[in-house]
Sequence to fold (136 residues):
Amino acid sequence: MAHRIPSGSKRGGFTIVEMIIVMTIISIIVSIAIPIYQKSLIRARESVLKNNLYTMRTVIDEYTYDKQKAPQDLRDLVDAGYLRTIPLDPMTGRSDTWRVEMEDATASVNQTEPGIYNVRSGSDQKSLEGTPYSEW
Fold:
């Protein structure tokens, strides 16, 4: 015996109002989740920046100690085997935007050839805490 749908009954499904309510709830959830996700991406890039700066500063110190002179260029660190490659600045996405600070000739190990004593990010942006990345 086949079941027949009586002609006066409702058919199953969602009304337009129910669909609008569901879409509104999804929109609210997404609008809350996206900023949280974006901040987590920034925090991850900041962490990579801190790690890269620490590594490069350590390697600059090791190079200066070993060679009795500071590197003239970041490429010297790669050529001497202290780094495989110059790391990317995660804030600019490039490895050629690092800002190097040259030592003062009177304070340098080899006063005839002052070299790099510090490196900073080449980004003009500010961190989540409000300090410029170029001051880290």
